[in-house]
Design a protein that fits this description.
Keywords: Signal. The strands form two sheets. Strands 4-3-6-7 form a four-stranded antiparallel sheet, with no helix packed on it. It has a three-stranded antiparallel sheet with strand order 1-2-5, with no helix packed on it. The chain has about 130 residues and is of the alpha+beta class. A hairpin with a 4-residue loop joins strand 6 and strand 7. About 20% of the residues lie in helices and about 40% in strands. The termini are far apart.
């Protein structure tokens, strides 16, 4: 009987250890695991829609950087509502590569989208025939 009690006690202790480890892992997960975001280009434009949904009181930032990692724009997601939806118009940016990043308070990248702006010049050539008299 004592052996059964010892085995049960060991089993309960092992189970409690496993459960406490699972709880510790769940509590230590970074906030980005709970943040939902989407970055989508707007058709036929130089714009992107950015959506972020997060738990209240988590700090999340939307940042736009150029190819040299220079910050072009920074915007904070409202900590009270926990939701963010905005269309970013990049038509005033110079040609080049840019990245939209959704960052956690730890500066961990939750979501990112890299894009390039190129100006295309169209050259048209016409043939004009002189009239003969």
């Amino acid at each position: 009987m004592k052996n059964n009690n010892v085995i049960k006690a060991m089993f309960v202790a092992a189970a409690m250890t496993c459960l406490s480890n699972v709880s510790a892992i769940a509590n230590s997960n970074d906030e980005e695991a709970f943040v939902k975001s989407k970055i989508a280009p707007v058709t036929n434009s130089l714009s992107f829609n950015v959506w972020v949904e997060k738990p209240n009181n988590k700090k999340v930032t939307v940042v736009v950087v150029d190819k040299d990692n220079n910050e072009v724009h920074r915007e904070y997601v409202d900590t009270k509502s926990g939701k963010f939806a905005k269309t970013f118009d990049f038509s005033n940016l110079s040609d080049g590569k840019y990245t939209i990043q959704v960052l956690s308070s730890n500066i961990d990248v939750i979501d990112a989208k890299t894009f390039e702006i190129k100006t295309n010049f169209v050259t048209t050539r016409d043939l004009v025939v002189a009239r003969q008299k």
